[in-house]
Specification:
The protein is built from twelve helices and 16 strands. It has helices spanning 10-25, 60-67, 93-100, 119-126, 137-143, 145-153, 181-192, 201-207, 239-242, 258-267, 284-293, 305-313, and strands at residues 37-42, 45-51, 76-81, 104-109, 130-133, 157-164, 169-171, 196-200, 224-228, 249-253, 270-273, 298-301, 319-324, 337-338, 351-358, 361-367. Strand 8 (196-200), helix 8 and strand 9 form a beta-alpha-beta unit.
């Protein structure tokens, strides 16, 4: 029985694989715009590469064209997402491609942005540029999961993370650390790759966390801090309050404590009064919509037991990391908060993605 011949060569796949790696490297760092990777090849040699700029501009195609030290006439471009073709804050990438002299372009996926979708193919072909799409499209779909969710649902892509002991506790009086120090690097990497990090005021008051990225050289990529504090119970002497400044801390509440509100505003905290549901709890989906309007596209939730279970039960996590230590914690009355990976099963729409070991911790990743 004959099989359908793959229209893309092994070299095409190699170049697009590199472009996808360039895109992956910038995920979470390009603001409202998708992270795109671009590779330009001439006579089977890579002559230039480009990525979407930090915070979304310039675009990858522009950077690759601008970075080239060679004449691009007759070259090929491999780009992970359909090039933009409309005027926004920058001119269309299709204009740069046409002017550059590139003769052939490969891209993995059509952009889901209605202003772009499918139009670039025709624009470029009319200019006698050969266009082929669908190269490594399945790998590209993985890269653009967050972008697709952002565009379709107008919500941030939500990643959850929790650390539990061997006996499923996440807190025990007198115990500061549960996970291995090596796991901290992964935690800070997740913070680096997300626009914002969310906790409850309960977690803040217990742990007094910094919620920043402490990977050397990446401190400036620390996420915005999002605090859920229904009754404004936040400790005013906490690190988060003391280190608040314009645009780095958002607090959702449902309080009329004007004295405390005035103090927090003066400290630079953005206060957002949010409605409660019929259980007198925050409507988490409403909060996610508000965060999207505040330009949050990738959100990390490092919550305690209650907040984590609320996100799980409402099926709001797109991805979830469980760090399980080999330590056993002592269970004290009023200090026992535990969660179980039994919650993260197909009943709630979560599927096991991977299991791995990092130092003394087992890390399980789930995806919706």
């Amino acid at each position: 029985m004959s099989t359908k011949k793959d229209k893309f060569s092994s070299k095409d796949k190699k170049y697009m694989s590199l472009a996808l790696n360039l895109a992956r490297a910038r995920i979470g760092l390009t603001g409202e715009n998708p992270s795109v990777g671009c590779v330009i090849v001439k006579k089977n040699n890579i002559i230039s590469i480009g990525q979407t700029g930090l915070f979304g501009r310039p675009h990858a195609e522009y950077n690759a064209i601008n970075n080239s030290l060679q004449n691009l006439s007759g070259s090929k471009m491999y780009v992970t997402l359909e090039p933009c073709n409309h005027y926004g804050k920058t001119p269309p990438c299709t204009n740069y491609i046409i002017k550059s002299g590139i003769s052939e372009i490969f891209y993995s996926l059509d952009d889901i942005d209605k202003r772009v979708k499918g139009k670039s193919f025709n624009i470029l072909k009319k200019k006698q540029i050969k266009v082929q799409k669908g190269l490594l499209k399945n790998q590209a779909k993985e890269v653009y999961q967050a972008y697709i969710i952002n565009r379709i649902y107008k919500l941030p892509y939500v990643t959850g993370k929790i650390v539990v002991s061997k006996n499923n506790l996440i807190y025990s009086k007198g115990t500061k650390r549960i996970s291995d120090k090596t796991s901290d690097k992964l935690t800070h990497y997740l913070r680096y790759k997300n626009d914002a990090i969310m906790i409850s005021s309960k977690t803040l008051n217990i742990d007094n966390p910094k919620l920043n990225c402490r990977l050397k050289g990446y401190e400036k990529f620390s996420p915005k801090r999002i605090i859920l504090d229904k009754n404004l119970e936040i400790n005013l002497n906490s690190y988060i309050v003391k280190s608040s400044k314009m645009d780095n801390t958002v607090l959702f509440h449902n309080s009329s404590n004007y004295k405390k509100m005035k103090f927090l505003r003066k400290k630079g905290v953005l206060l957002v009064k949010s409605k409660l549901d019929h259980f007198k709890s925050f409507d988490l989906k409403l909060i996610l919509r508000k965060l999207y309007k505040l330009n949050i596209r990738n959100l990390l939730v490092e919550g305690g037991d209650i907040l984590t279970k609320s996100f799980v039960n409402k099926k709001l996590f797109n991805k979830f990391y469980m760090f399980k230590s080999n330590k056993k914690l002592t269970r004290f009355k009023n200090h026992t908060f535990f969660t179980s990976d039994r919650l993260l099963n197909k009943k709630y729409g979560y599927n096991l993605m991977s299991r791995s070991k990092l130092a003394n911790d087992n890390i399980t990743v789930y995806r919706k």
